[in-house]
Design goal:
- By secondary structure, this protein is an all-beta fold.
- Helix content is about 0%, strand content about 80%.
- Strands 6-5-4-3-2-1-10-9-8-7 form a ten-stranded antiparallel beta sheet, with no helix packed on it.
- The protein is globular and about 40 Å long.
- It starts with a strand and ends with a strand.
- The mean pLDDT is about 90.
Length: about 140
């Protein structure tokens, strides 16, 4: 059995990189599907001068998955205090990425279709840190 909620997504992403820091704020509609105790949150990010990005979070108490799809698809997996490896397909070929999750706090009310996620991680490629990320996500019908 599954439940579907139309939700308002409020997302702030902060990125710290050598080339400078960035911050993105999104307030957009999304869809939350609860299936077999797992929540799937999906929405579309739109940025100027870029193609739309389909975003899907898979939300479980101790693990979060993030899929971002536009010209390329990226899948990142997060487990608190653990290193996770993924392959990012680029036009130049595959690139191995690692996420080290420094913070993961998920609060989810499946009956009401509300939740919030605070996710902090370090993204690296070939042993070099690409950036440090903080994702503050909230959603409600």
């Amino acid at each position: 059995m599954s439940q579907t909620f139309m939700v308002q997504v409020d997302l702030t992403t902060k990125i710290w990189q050598d080339g400078g820091d960035e911050k993105f704020d999104f307030h957009l509609p999304g869809q939350l599907i609860i299936r077999n105790g797992t929540a799937y949150l999906s929405y579309t990010e739109t940025l100027p001068d870029q193609s739309d990005t389909e975003v899907r979070f898979k939300l479980k108490p101790q693990q979060v998955g993030l899929t971002r799809s536009n010209e390329n698809t990226t899948y990142l997996s997060f487990k608190a205090q653990q290193d996770q490896e993924t392959v990012y397909q680029t036009a130049a070929g595959p690139m191995v990425l690692n996420t080290y999750t420094t913070g993961l706090n998920l609060q989810l009310n499946q009956e009401k279709g509300t939740g919030q996620l605070l996710l902090e991680y370090v993204l690296s490629s070939q042993g070099q840190v690409v950036g440090r990320y903080r994702v503050d996500l909230q959603f409600k019908p």
